[in-house]
Amino acid sequence: MLWFKPVGIIYRPLSLAGWVLTLLAAGFCIHVFLRIDSRSHSISDTLYGVFPYWLPTLLAWLWIAGRTSGSRSA
Predict the structure, then answer these.
(1) The whole model's pTM is what?
(2) How far from chain centre, in Å, is Cα 24?
(3) In this structure, are residues 51 and 43 in contact, taking their beta carbons and an 8 Å threshold?
(4) Average pLDDT for residues 35-53, to the nearest whole number?
(5) Please, where are the H alpha helices in the chain?
(6) 10 Å Cβ neighbour count for 44?
């Protein structure tokens, strides 16, 4: 069963597992943003603070979405 469907350069969740994974990743990113932003003094503080958390989270989400979308090239 496919979890995601490629739509341009992003993936759309198709199954319950895809939605759960997407909501967990989004919830984590929102939580990290709110936590770091509450202690930041500027926009750059916030961006530097969330980057180490968001990048691996979004890369893992993209990797899983790509592997479970069924659109493998060669």
Answers:
(1) 0.86
(2) 8
(3) no
(4) 95
(5) 16-39, 43-67
(6) 9
Which class for 11: exposed (0-12), middle (13-18), buried (19 or more C-beta within 10 A)? buried
pLDDT-derived band of residue 74, with 50, 70 and 90 as boundaries? Answer: very low
User: What is the largest distance, in Å, between two alpha-carbon atoms of the chain?
Assistant: 48
Contacts of 62 (CB under 8 A, 6+ apart): 11
User: Which pairing describes strands 4-7 and 10-13: parallel, antiparallel, or unpaired?
Assistant: antiparallel
Question: 49 with 40: CB under 8 angstroms?
Answer: yes
What pairs with residue 4 in β-bridges?
A: 13
Distance CA 42, CA 33 (A): 13
